[in-house]
Amino acid sequence: MSIGRTGERGPVPAGTEAADPRRWWGLVVIALAQLMVVLDATIVNIALPSAQAALHMSDGNRQWVITAYTLAFGGLLLLGGRIADLVGRKRTFVIGLIGFALASALGGAAGSSGMLFGARALQGVFAAVLAPSALSLLTTTFTDPRERGKAFGIYGALAGSGSAIGFILGGLLTEYLNWRWCLYVNVPIAIIAVLGAFALLHDRPGHGGTARLDAPGAVLGCGGLVAIVYGFSEAEPRGWTDPLVLALFAVGIVLLVVFVWWQNRAPDPLLPLHIVRDRNRAGCFLTMLLAVIGMFGLFLFMTYYLQVILGYSPVRAGLGFLPLTAAIIIGSTQISARLLNRVAPRMLMVPGMLLACAGLLLLTRMTVHSSYTSEILPALLLLGLGMGLTFMPVFATATAGVAPRDSGVTSATVNTAQQVGGSIGTALLNTIATTSAAAYVTAHLRSPADRATVVPAGVVHGYTVAIWWAAAVMLLAAVVAGLMVTAKPPRHGVPAKAQVRESVG
């Protein structure tokens, strides 16, 4: 089979391998792993009140159920990506799956809050190995431009909708079983994925072999990311001017500056800087970061809006996200995947971000008495369609033409942008929302009797102010994509033989 531009019926270009006939089944395995990692960032959100009551967590400590995962995941992604390049993507993929399953089982069996926090941190550690391995396996498996578009369409749909699926699944498991199953559910998924990986996935040539891991780079880069992600996590309960928050940001920035300086001198750099110097990749990384800032903040608000303001049950609230998920899948697999070979990536990314911005602007009109069908649903559909149009070309363009030895760390950089964006979005927009809500209540509360109406109105006012900021961030993402991502459609870019050589190594 050909993996060049002529498709399966054309001749195999000289010096390349035939496409794996089981590659689409391999995509199912990769997709399962990616779905597990992404939905786990949100699946415990709806279960958190139940877990807090069962394990007697304080309000101040409950955030660590979320933070322990995001901190380890976001901070260690670069290291996980480089390990995948050095020892082989399939091997780290399997190790990540097994470790993630064991950590999930440990968390589900937790008898104390400390045990649950530790298990969530372990999940984040193994997710940091698993996520870049999954994306780099996808990158090196699908090299034909037409097939690559379909494969990345599916992957982009999962990356965009996995968080919403987490809310749906979390609601179902919490209401009909109990909160522990939000963790146990990962075990059967991981077992199926491990068996599929052994049977269907193969490493391509090009991992590092005798290259050594950049230990100083790992300490500097991972330490800087951990400090920044931790700073954003602590900004939510403490406030942006808290000394600890400011110190974390300062330490994180200093470590990352020193990290960049060291990467120019390291014999085997953790993050080869030519990856981020490329204009298209840098544009994709920044677009992903900005897009996720807006989307994750919305997830937080809508979860509380549906359950607290509109009085939805956990299951009904989870199902409220289903149209968003469907729209992301349609935008990614039915629109972006079909058009990426015909139009430049930014011709999908810019309209996608504008559609998402329009969806957020519709949500700024919501009130305490808004109708889900007529006011919330259209906004979620627009947002989902826009994110679906954006995620797929971001993943495909950021990883296109990367040498196999760098595919893991490139994949990790995309995932890092997504994870850090989620941390920033949650902390930044939640702080804006709570501050605006407090100001509204202070200004409008005339007597204790008014509290029952003023407080809910103030909460919703805080959400709408934060959503205005999220819309502005989406608009900025559209500008970044339009100005920085100048890649051409695959059919009109690199000649077929050269493209195959770049993809296969």
Automatic annotation (TrEMBL):
TM stretches of this protein: 24-44, 64-81, 93-115, 121-140, 152-172, 178-201, 213-232, 244-262, 283-306, 318-340, 347-364, 376-403, 424-445, 465-487
Keywords: Antibiotic resistance, Cell membrane, Membrane, Transmembrane, Transmembrane helix, Transport
Domain Major facilitator superfamily (MFS) profile: 26-489
Molecular function in Gene Ontology: transmembrane transporter activity
GO cellular component: plasma membrane
Membrane-protein topology: Multi-pass membrane protein
Major place of residence: membrane
One protein family per Pfam: MFS_1
Gene Ontology terms: biological process: response to antibiotic
Compartments where found: Cell membrane
PANTHER family, sorted: BLR6921 PROTEIN (PTHR42718:SF46), MAJOR FACILITATOR SUPERFAMILY MULTIDRUG TRANSPORTER MFSC (PTHR42718)
NCBIfam families associated with the record: efflux_EmrB
Protein name: DHA2 family efflux MFS transporter permease subunit
Protein species of origin: Streptomyces bauhiniae
